[in-house]
Amino acid sequence: MRLFTAIELSDEMKKAAIKILHDLKESGVTGNYTSVQNLHLTLCFIGELPDSKPVEEALSTVKFKPFKLDYTGIGHFGDLLYAETRGGQGINNLANDIRKALDAAGIDYDRKKFTPHITLIRKSAGKAGKIAIPDASMMVKKVSLMRSDNVKGKMVYKEIFHI
Ligand code: 2AM
Question: How many other CB atoms are found less than 10 A from the CB of residue 18?
């Protein structure tokens, strides 16, 4: 199974993301828009493993203090458009501690530099005009272990464990 750890968005943060997506569409940006149920912030991408139990055990050793998350703007990696977020030292410590716990358990993961982001559009084209960034925030109190499945060509993400 394909695994990753993520922050699932509160309703307020989701609503705000929907508004951003709507405004991007209005300003003529095309591409593969993330479906509302798939909006999330990836903390660590693990990839294919036959069993999630070792990851669950490793994650159980991670302790973190709740921290505030909000939107700060729109950014892009090439043609991938994302919502930039701010989670302060809390989110960086959390991502780091997850990596350390996976290292201690001998579980491999994507070691790319952690850049907190919420993917909004893949293969985007066109200019995002002036997009207002909604004043939404949430307290992050939970980290989800997600399973990603390709169901009839669509990615379906499901929480299978959380801390
Ligand atoms: P994203 O965070 O840029 O949107 C499930 O595939 C999630 O893990 C997606 O959100 C995806 O991209 C993220 N992810 C991070 N690194 C990945 C990788 N090497 N391969 C696939 N997905 C990855």
Answer: 13
Choosing from 4, 5, 155 the residue with most ligand 1 atoms within 8 A of its CB, the one to mutate for a pocket test is: 4
Three-state SS sequence of 10-37: CHHHHHHHHHHHHHHHHCCCEEEECCHH
**CB of 83 within 8 A of CB of 42?**
no
Give residue 45 CA to ligand 1 midpoint distance, Å. 6
Residues with CB under 6 A from ligand 1: 4, 42, 45, 110, 119, 148
Q: What is the pLDDT of residues 22-55, one digit of tens each?
A: 999 999 999 999 999 999 999 999 999 999 999 9
CATH architecture of 2-152: Alpha-Beta Complex (3.90)
pTM exceeds 0.85, yes or no: yes
In this predicted structure, the answer to whether residue 130 has a pLDDT above a threshold of 90 is no
Contacts of 22 (CB under 8 A, 6+ apart): none
